[in-house]
Structures are given as C-alpha cells and as structure tokens.
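Supplementary Methods S3. Complex input for the magnesium ion-bound model.
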Amino acid sequence: MKKLAVLGCTGSIGTQTLDIVRSHRDEFEVVALSCASDICNLAKYANEFDCKLLGISDASKRKDLGELCPRAEIYCGDEALAALASCDADIVVVAVVGMVGLKAVAAALDRKKTVALANKESLVAGGAIVAEKLRKGGEIRPVDSEHSAVWQCLRGEKEFKRIILTASGGPFLDTPINELAYVTPERAIAHPNWRMGKKISVDSATMMNKALEIIEARWLFGTTNIDYVIHPESIVHSMVEFRDGSIKAQAGMPDMRLPILYALGCPERLTREYDAVPLPLRLGFSAPDENKFPAPKLARRAIAAGGDAAIVLNAANEAAVRLFLERKIAFTDIVRIAENALDAEPAACAESVESVFETHNRIYDKIYLKY
Ligand code: MG
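Predicted complex, serialized as structure tokens:
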C-alpha cells in the first residue's frame, strides 16, 4: 500500500489522481490533501478518502474548512506545503497550478520524498535549484504526458542521443497566420485532444506549452538535445532516439490518467480500464512552423542564455496569458511580450527559491500592470 499526498487535489490532475485511487483502493491510500481555495470539494474528498491532514492556501477559509472537517489537522499557506511535504506519504503528487509548485517540490525534496510532478513552473523557473536538491536525494517522476513518455522510453537504457517531443499543434494548427491576431479566449481554450485548465490550454494554443516542456525536459533528462514534431492525433506522446539509430516511442489514447498511474505505480504497470488505440490507424508527423508559432524558439534562447532567462520567459508568458484572458491584449501579443521580456532582462542567476519568486514577481507585475 503506497501512501499519497495530493497537493492541488481539486484541479484537473488532482481529481484524475483521486479517480485512480478510487479504482486502486488496494494499492493506494490518501494521507494528505490540499487545494488553493475550493474547500467544498476538499472537504468532500477528505471524507471520501478518510484523510485527516489537510492544507489550504487561502487562510481566510481555515475556519470554514474546520467546520466541514472537525477531526482534521489543517494547515494554511506555505506552512501547509511544508506540513504536507513532511507527512508520512511515500509519494507527493504536486498538481498545484503555478509558481507555488516550486515551493511544494522544494519542500518535498528537502525531505527526500518521491514527487509525482505535474507542475511545470517548478522545473521551468526553478530547474537549477530542483536539480541541485535532487543530487542530495528524493526523486521526481514526471506526470506530464510527453515527459512520462520519454521516461518510459528510457527505462532499461543507459544513454540516448536525442529527445523528440510530440506536440498536437493546438486548436490553431490550421488557422491562417493572419487570423491569429483575432482569435478569442473562448477559441483558444478549446483544445482538440486534452481536457485541461485555461492557462495550459492557452499555452497549448500559442505553443508556449511546448516551449515550457522543452525546458522541463532539459532538467528532467539532463540534455539540450531536444526536438519536437507536430503530431495532431496526440497518440504518440513522445520519442527517444538512441545511438544505433533506433527510436522508441510511447503511445496510447490521450488520457492523463495513464501518466499519473505510471508515476504512482512505477516500476509496475498497474491495470487500468482504458480506450484502446483504434487499429488500423494513420498517424501524422510534420515539421513545426516556427514563423507562425515562435514560442519554442524562445525556449531554446532561454536555455542557451541560462540563469534567470527561463524565469523571465515563464513570468512574462503567465502575465500575458492573463491579459489575453482578460481581453486586454491580442492572442499574438502573448509570445511577442514574452520575447520582448527576454530581450530586456539581463540573465542573472537565482540561487534560492526565494530569489526565483522575486524575479518571477518582478517580471510578472511589470508586464501585467503595464496594460
Ligand atoms: Mg504535456
């Protein structure tokens, strides 16, 4: 029986993680749950899974949560991340949205925990710090579908030559470039293959999601030899090329419960009810158009620049996506703003979680408040 702490349990990955626990009651036990502010669902899950250790970011809701779950131990804010990371969980599922994920990962790794990681920001902005902590202990198991695919392809292998991430191309793959400036938030968040939160759906539409994933892969697998290919069906989740010319790919129907289950069950593959890949099947792989979707070029620039460049890219994009969702800027402004931020900011080097947040907040506020 593995004990799980699920941080961000009310979001898309969090609820799918709990789905997996429901169908594997003999394998997993939930010992800690947290969320940002949705106390109704948090209390519902706490009761369902008989979980007595709860965390909530929004401290003003502590009292109400206490009334809903009178027997639970409740922590708030950053204190909650530290308390939940130090509980007796075997695996800490970090499914929180945004930069707070870095604090959660840092807290869990400081306690030498195994982290099932669905949060992008922790590696994109805090990759160097996370890598340093990993040298001292703990483990990260990727939950992102592409990185889980690479991880699965690498099992049993000693070395590899190149990572090839796949990208669906998002909802505007076939939209003419001159129409992109006019697309609405509603169209941008309607992803063809995956059900996801708003921020990541917009990132998928601009291809910034692939940019962030290239940076994630750089830290997870210790290489800069990372390419990507457009694969609209999202059935091959990524590939790894080896020095004998062999390419291994991991495939399956697009369903985040597969990478979540693999991260939780590894080294075993646990049984799951799934939609089989319909065969026969034609799959497409085409070259990306970086003139139309330049975001991944920015990832390469940020990796080459090193230091805080990826923090700047991530913070600028986050502010720009919010401005786009609030209809203050056009869709095509998002990546332009991120590029301008990379041009404008010197590449200093954050040495602590606190300094990552300082840089992130400074860039985010500067851009968000300008519009
Ligand atoms: Mg992904």
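The chain has 15 helices and eleven strands. The radius of gyration is 20 Å.
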